[in-house]
Amino acid sequence: MSAGSGNKNTEPWGSFDDNLIQGSGSAVIDMENMDDTSGSSFEDMGELHQRMKEEEEVTEEAAATEDHEDGEFLGMKGLKGQLGRQVADEVWQAGKRQASRAFNLYANIDILRPYFDVEPVQVRSRLMESMIPVRMINFPQKIAGELYGPLMLVFTLVAILLHGMKTSDTIIREGTLMGTAIGTCFGYWLGVSSFIYFLAYLVNAQITMLQMLSLLGYGLFGHCVVLLVSYNIHFHFLFYVLWLLCGGLSTLRMVAALLSRTVGQTPRLLLCGTLSVLHMLFLLYLHFAYHKIVEGQSPLRPPILSL
Q1: Distance between CA atoms of 127 and 222, rounded to whole angstroms?
Q2: pTM of structure
Q3: CA-CA-CA-CA torsion for 26, 32, 33, 35, nearest 10 degrees?
């Protein structure tokens, strides 16, 4: 029984051992296969991961390069836009300052105050002096640098011309008469003063534009006296006498002032001769041709001597 029992115990254990050996063999084979396949899979995954990483790095570098270029482009555009706005703002501010300065220049009456700051007594004395020629021409004579007296004389001359038209039998619209009288008087005062100042500049005469305006303006005092008398007293002989007396004295006064400020015979003759001819002929023009034009006389008809 023992042998039988031994045999009986041996067979099941033997079969178990065989199965164990077979199982162990199969386990070994499976492990080897698993090791082989797993090793190759890990290498492939590592290479794939490395490639993906490299591609990501390349993509990131390209994106960073594009962002940098875009940033530089946008930065240049932003800088140009900011610079343009700054330039436009500076131009606007400069124009605004110039406009404000010009407005203040013409709006501020204090700038013109020195040219009109004169006492009535001084104006009266200068009116009298404008009819008295001086003999001393060796040194420059003093010329008043103010515009109050000359401007008032020009307006007075305009009023005298309008008075002459009112006392005549001619019917004329007030606007046309007023505009013609103002244009004639102011045109002569400003135009002849500018022309004589230009000649004085050419011959190197020591006189300013302000002094020339003042000198010629006060020289119109004789014209005002002659026209005022001739409009109310209609004598031709009286007009010519006053033309030579009052017009001549005021012209001589201006000529003496210019002679004292000019050097050389030829410059003196040119400057003073031009002023004398223009000033004396202007008085004749106001007495004859001006009334003929304003009163609507025909150019073919002779001028009316009696007003």
Answers
A1: 9
A2: 0.60
A3: 140
CA-CA-CA-CA dihedral for 70, 76, 78, 82, to nearest 10: 180
Whole-angstrom distance, CA of residue 238 vs CA of residue 157 = 19
The owner of tokens 């178990």 is: 16
Identify the CA nearest to 164 among candidates 141, 185, 181. 181
Taking alpha carbons only, the member of 214, 194, 226 closest to residue 254 is 214
- Alpha carbon distance 272, 213 (integer Å): 15
**Nearest partner of 213 among 154, 264, 162, judged by Cα:** 154
Q: d(Cα 251, Cα 257) in Å, to the nearest integer?
A: 10
Q: Where are the beta strands (DSSP E) in 151-280?
A: none
Question: Rounded to whole angstroms, how far apart are CA atoms 52 and 43?
Answer: 14
C-alpha triplet 239, 244, 249: angle, nearest 5°: 130
Measured CA to CA in angstroms, residue 18 lies from 124, 135, 168, 257 at distances of 156, 163, 162, 154
Per-residue confidence in pLDDT tens, the chain, 307 aa: 444 444 444 444 444 444 444 444 444 444 444 444 444 444 555 566 667 767 777 677 766 665 555 555 545 555 666 777 777 778 888 877 777 776 666 666 667 778 888 898 999 999 999 898 887 777 788 888 889 999 999 999 999 888 877 776 555 555 577 888 888 899 999 999 999 999 999 998 889 999 999 999 999 999 999 988 887 887 778 889 999 999 999 999 999 999 989 888 898 999 999 999 999 999 998 887 655 444 444 333 444 433 3
DSSP type of residue 111: G
Q: How many CB atoms lie within 10 A of CB 245?
A: 14
| 3-class DSSP state of 134 | coil
Amino acid at 70: D
